[in-house]
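Appendix C reproduces, verbatim, an entry submitted by the partner laboratory led by Prof. M.T., so that reviewers can inspect both the input and the predicted structure.
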Amino acid sequence: MSNNKNIGPILTAIGLLVGITAASKKAPLLGEFPDTTFVALIGVVIALAGVILWRQSVNPTASSKHDLNTQSGESLRERCSQARSALQQLVENDNSDIESRYREIDAFVNEHLLAIEMQRSDAMTNFGLSRGTEFLSNLALVERLVNRAHSTSADGHRGETHASLEKALLAMNQLIEWLNTSGQATMLSLFASTQQNNFDRDHN
C-alpha cells in the first residue's frame, strides 16, 4: 500500500524534472521552439499522471468512497442481513429457559451486533456524512433494544425480554429497509455527481 502511495509523488517529481530540464534549453532562433519541446511535453504528461495517482492515493474518488458495491459496503449490508436472521430466530425460538435466553442474546451481541459496530466507519465511507449519521441513528435503536433484552434476561424477566427482542426485530427490519432504499439513493446521487464533475472538467 505504501509503495502504491509513493508512485504518484515519484512520477510527479520525474515529470517536473524532465519537463523543466527540457523546457529550459534555449531555442536556436528567436520565435522557434527548442528541439527538446517534445521531451518537455512528455514530462508534463508524466507529471499530470503522477498528480492524478497522488490525488487518488490521498483522497479516493467519490465512486470509491460511496459505491455500495465495494467490498466494505457489501460486507456491511451482509452483516446487517445476517444479524436480522439471527434476531428473528431469537424471537421465534422462545422456548428456552431464561438463563439460556441470556446466553443466546449474549452470543448475538458478540457475534453480530459488535461486528456491525466495528464497521461504523464504513457507514460514513459508503453513505457520506448525512446518510451515514442516519444509519448510525437507526442502528443505535436496534442496539438499545437488544441491550435492554440482554439486561432484562439477566434479571430473569422473560416477558420483558421477549417484548424487547420483538421491538428490536422491527427496528432491524426498518434498518434493512432504510439500508436498501438509501443505497439506491446514494448510487443515483453519486452518478449525478460524477456526471456533473465530468462535465465541469471537460468544459474548464
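Residues 2-59 form one domain. Additional entries are available on request from the coordinating office.
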